[in-house]
Amino acid sequence: MVYLGVIGGARCTPEVDACAEQVGGEVARSGAILVCGGMGGVMEAASRGARLAGGVTVGILPGLDRESANPYITVAIPTGLGEARNALVVRASDGLIAIDGSYGTLSEIALGLQLGRPIVGLDTWKIDAPIIRVSNPLDAVHRLLEELGVQNS
Amino acid sequence: MVYLGVIGGARCTPEVDACAEQVGGEVARSGAILVCGGMGGVMEAASRGARLAGGVTVGILPGLDRESANPYITVAIPTGLGEARNALVVRASDGLIAIDGSYGTLSEIALGLQLGRPIVGLDTWKIDAPIIRVSNPLDAVHRLLEELGVQNS
Amino acid sequence: MVYLGVIGGARCTPEVDACAEQVGGEVARSGAILVCGGMGGVMEAASRGARLAGGVTVGILPGLDRESANPYITVAIPTGLGEARNALVVRASDGLIAIDGSYGTLSEIALGLQLGRPIVGLDTWKIDAPIIRVSNPLDAVHRLLEELGVQNS
Amino acid sequence: MVYLGVIGGARCTPEVDACAEQVGGEVARSGAILVCGGMGGVMEAASRGARLAGGVTVGILPGLDRESANPYITVAIPTGLGEARNALVVRASDGLIAIDGSYGTLSEIALGLQLGRPIVGLDTWKIDAPIIRVSNPLDAVHRLLEELGVQNS
Q: Are the beta carbons of B83 and C114 separated by less than 8 Å?
């Protein structure tokens, strides 16, 4: 089983929301489990997309309250670690798709790079690092699966 | 959705294994998600029981390698936190069933008590604390659901 | 440099407070650094004893606010991990002295046993485990140093 | 007491080493405690500078082995959390000075920005964020103290 992490801000524009939802849908259609931080914004949109496509979503929450998860999370893991849980989102993901996002997303990108996880970026942080830049949500998932050596269906 | 944690040693006797498998099966039949540390022994037996009964199991692993999970884990979360992940097993569980077990299990019981989680014990640590002692695997699950105010099916 | 952990409840009786203060003083006189959870009760009393004897104290705090440390902490480390920081108190200590205490202390004893740390107990949890039981604060420190192979001055 | 974090790579050039050593020295002369990840490179050079100037250094280590700390650490805290300890370095620091550095440093910068910590950068990551850029080691410390509202001696 492949676990794909989708990282991005807890708040986002309608455009970013639509993009994240498409990413989530394609993650589910690829048969992968979607991992995220379980909150709103990009995390919620990607989870919604995945669930509508029949997929499974895992939310690794910063707080202690499972009810803080967005409504599209299948398995909600309250950690109580605050933003230190970002490291767990990365460790639980075989590869990452970063969509937009703020400092939390940047920390996840950095931790992912440090751990050697392949990272695909959709309109995300501009940094001098081997992030695979794409502009299309479906491409994001396909490129990541390719990097992971997973056959696309 | 209710999340029931099953805690116990990474190695156990055949008797304890059989007991844990029955607990896992009943967790699944109750409709709850089974949470555990994802490794062998009691964790593996409970996961096996849950999966054979059609349930979902979450393994919160101490290491960074998802492949270290036992084969009956549906969602494997590698944390890389070592035994500090015991706190996450407890936080991710609405209530806990402790079966036999050694020091790791004792730490989870203690953290569960500290967090106010109801704990049911099956032949586990003798300590002066409000652990609900039962001797039968099915009773363990039923008593825990009762404590959590969940209607048994 | 030797690091000795002193664990116990965040609230305690005057008798336990006096005992913990004596333990802290002897830790400092032995030249060791005192590690604790940085809060009140036993942690504060032990820190007070250590500081009055000219020692150094490290408080590994559950919250994000350094100001929550008791006033006798030399180096205050806010972790924001909640009680998951108990694992860090144990990992940062070469050996542990448990004084009285409730569930948090029990979790630290259990994690210490799991990590193979020598543990000396002063009127603490009765569990079936190799805790070195003593009844005198000075003996507690001397026995722990002996276990660690450190020459008493 | 003010705690200043110095973050940067575990390996660095002689030029970066010299810069970090000067930063560490000035941190110590300002009376602040120096916090770092406790390993080599920038962390070691900054710790060396601080110790040579009579200061106190705290190393929050990724591993479980205290002996992995560089020789200039006064208080070594083995966490066993791997790179998840980066969040603890940030939380334990009132402000951060980033010197050069790779992905781990970037994750600490991002977590610091997320937590609202002031960050001063010396030839470090180019990102679109409110990092105070300086080119001189002494300026780095002075500007950070200024941001923290601490009177320079």
A: yes
